[in-house]
Design brief:
- Among the domains are: 50 residues, no CATH class; 179 residues, Alpha-Beta Barrel (TIM Barrel), CATH 3.20.20.10; 77 residues, Up-down Bundle (Methane Monooxygenase Hydroxylase, Chain G, domain 1), CATH 1.20.58; 38 residues, no CATH class.
- Helix 13 packs antiparallel against helix 14.
- The two termini are 32 Å apart.
- Strands 4, 13, 14, 15, 16, 17, 20, 21, 22 and 23 form a 10-stranded mixed β-sheet that branches. The chain has an 8-stranded parallel beta barrel with strand order 5-6-7-8-9-10-11-12, surrounded by 5 helices.
- By secondary structure, the protein is an alpha/beta fold.
- Strand 1 and strand 2 form a beta hairpin.
- Bound molecules: pyridoxal-5'-phosphate.
């Protein structure tokens, strides 16, 4: 295939244009056919499965787009990689303690995900972190492994503590991490009442600051954790209650998605100072919990910018283990069991949001006539002349002139001096000027600042069959960048620059921030739609935080969720298929009763029959459509 300038275009060009090999981290690739593939290693071999084949399989099974696809192999891969990387760092540094990962349930609470982590992770004694009673209940029912940890963060009431003490009694390694001084009283009281000794941790507020979006979680003003004064007070109260031996863990969490490895090192270093002094104070400790923060490189840029990271997982592990080893080597304090609570880096890769494009609003002129009609408005003549005179020496001037004449035409239209068809012609000429300008820009040595945003101003709008608010809430809430790209046609050069609008009627419901080789851009290269053929896009790395933060904006509900597993033969199996919300489901979430709605509509229709305005047969058709809708998907369905 050739691009519009006649260069041949291959999957290598697509791979570099969309950065697949950068953000894909070896889990995603391109096939010869120009389709995105999932790469699943199996005993030294690896299999590539085309996402388009998975989509075809989904549609055969009646799952219309949009679908959230989970790839179980990638979840397993990430847990293995995390645990093996720490194990390797521990060997290298001759560290005397062990590593115990815990998965923070809040990052993806879906039953199937937590089940898989608990099951697959058991070979590494991978545990769970709970920040609420509901999450503790999940953790207690899923972990039977006495070597694995359950870490309880968050505000804890008496019932929370009772649940955790019961877990303790059953032999589970369940730690209460004290976040505020008042929690200690409740723990001591409940433990006395039930006669069960707790495992206690303290959460520290470190002075170390991190870069990135979670800047505020770190430093003096962070919301969680004990200040030094409160820490000393907790120590004294524990000693007084003769419970200091229960203080077996020290915890901190300085934010999620920490892009700079230096911040991670600084955090560990500071934490070690506390660790040493707490042990000298007589606390046994033995567990050092570094919280989350291990970042995902969403842009693939390998920098210390918010959506990226400037370190590998291996470096992360080595830096942590090395820093602790150095900090403790001058004391005779034993190396602690190392805990991290990596959520994002564990689950982000395993989910992909798949949707189809329903329509495109091309921001192109419809072509221009050979000549203007006789005696047209002077401004239209001027616009025409501007277009004719456009060349690479007068781009800026022509764009300014064109804008001026178009504004004239709009003004005269408002005043009734210009008719609809003349205005349409003017708008078309104006777009033509901008478009030709955009094509000439690359030949300029210096691009005038006013013209730098032309791509954005001329971006085509692709309408995607999904809700940003339901499926990509962080894109809306914190301007999170996710890799987005077509999952097929990658042997063809994309000819358009686009933004993507979702199905909601909200002007915020759009994707207009993307990563590319030069950093962030406002438009995404996409292909023209083909008649009679679906165009599918994927949003990648969406496994962390997106699923339950989503909301019912415009009453678009949960999408279908399908888990696949790729086996040793390179075949894939749909291991779990969860139907998305029906319209009836989402209506009942906002307190409507679907049966009552149907009954109300039936009465309307029946009244119409009696008054003679519709026939009984028409009534039946209407009721059938109404009832099918109530039981149908909330997203756009093709006939
Ligand atoms: C959110 C959270 C995490 C998870 O952080 P990631 O950056 O997603 O790994 C871990 N620990 C605590 C206490 C948290 O609040």
């Amino acid at each position: 295939m050739n691009d519009h300038q006649g260069h041949s275009w291959s999957i290598v060009d697509s791979a570099s244009l969309y950065g697949v090999n950068d953000w894909g981290a070896g889990y995603f690739g391109l096939s010869e056919k120009g389709e995105i593939t999932v790469i699943a290693p199996h005993n030294g071999r690896s299999h590539q499965i085309s996402l388009l084949d998975i989509v075809a399989g989904l549609e055969q099974r009646g799952h219309a787009m949009p679908v959230l696809l989970r790839i179980e192999n990638l979840l397993d891969q990430r847990i293995t990689y995390l645990n093996e990387s720490f194990a390797e760092a521990i060997r290298q540094m001759n560290y005397q303690g062990e590593y115990r990962g815990v998965f923070p349930i809040k990052v993806n609470q879906q039953c199937h995900v937590v089940e898989e982590i608990a099951k697959f992770g058991s070979q590494y004694h991978h545990g769970l972190e709970a920040g609420s009673k509901a999450e503790l209940i999940i953790a207690m029912s899923h972990l039977q492994d006495r070597e694995a940890c359950i870490i309880c963060n968050g505000y804890k009431d008496a019932e929370f503590i009772q649940l955790g003490l019961h877990a303790r009694k059953l032999g589970l390694k369940c730690f209460f991490v004290i976040e505020t001084p008042s929690e200690l009283g409740i723990i001591l009281e409940q433990s006395k009442r039930l006669g069960i000794e707790p495992l206690i941790g303290v959460r520290l507020k470190l002075a170390a600051k991190v870069e990135g979006h979670w800047f505020e979680d770190s430093g003096d003003r962070s919301l969680f954790g004990l200040t030094v004064t409160q820490l000393v007070d907790v120590l004294d109260r524990l000693r007084e209650a003769e419970m200091l031996h229960c203080l077996q863990l020290m915890h901190y969490h300085i934010g999620s998605q920490i892009p700079n490895i230096r911040n991670i090192r600084d955090g560990v270093q500071e934490a070690c100072r506390y660790y040493v002094d707490l042990v000298k104070e007589g606390a046994p400790l033995g567990h050092l919990d570094l919280g989350g923060g291990l970042a995902v490189d969403y842009t693939g840029a390998r920098t210390n910018e918010t959506h990226s990271k400037n370190y590998s997982l291996e470096e992360y592990c080595v830096d942590i283990v090395e820093t602790i080893t150095e900090a403790l080597n001058n004391s005779d304090i034993p190396h602690p069991t190392l805990i991290t609570e990596s959520g994002r880096a564990t689950v982000a890769y395993s989910s992909v949001l798949l949707f189809n494009i329903l329509d495109v609003s091309y921001f192109k002129s419809n072509g221009i006539p050979d000549q203007l009609p006789e005696d047209c408005t002077e401004s239209l003549d001027n616009l025409w002349a501007t277009l004719q005179s456009l060349n690479d020496t007068n781009l800026q001037e022509c764009c300014n002139d064109a804008a001026h004449y178009r504004e004239d035409m709009r003004r005269m239209f408002r005043q009734g001096q210009v008719q609809l068809r003349e205005l349409a012609l003017a708008e078309n000429l104006y777009l033509e000027v901008l478009q030709r300008t955009r094509l000439l820009l690359p030949s300029l040595r210096r691009i005038p600042p006013e013209l730098a945003n032309l791509d954005e101003a001329l971006a085509d709008i692709y309408y995607g069959n999904f809700s940003l608010f339901q499926s990509l809430p962080d894109s809306w809430a914190i301007d999170q960048i996710f890799p987005v790209m077509p999952i097929h046609r990658l042997t063809e050069a994309p000819t358009n620059k686009a933004i993507i609008a979702d199905l909601t009627c909200d002007s915020d419901g759009k994707l207009d921030l993307f990563a590319n080789a030069d950093g962030e851009t406002r438009t995404l290269p996409l292909h023209d739609l083909k008649e009679g053929e679906e165009y599918y896009l994927g949003v990648f790395l969406v496994g962390a935080y997106q699923e339950t933060l989503g909301d019912l904006h415009n009453l678009f509900g949960d999408t279908h969720v399908v888990s696949v597993r790729i086996d040793g033969e390179g075949q894939f199996e749909f291991v779990e298929e969860i139907q998305g919300d029906t319209i009836g489901d989402v209506l009942s979430y906002v307190e409507y009763n679907p049966k009552e709605l149907y009954e109300k509509f039936r009465i309307c229709a029946e009244t119409a029959v009696r008054s003679g305005s519709i026939s009984v047969a028409e009534r039946q058709r209407m009721l059938k459509t109404f009832s099918n809708s109530l039981n149908g998907y909330t997203y756009f369905e093709r006939d």
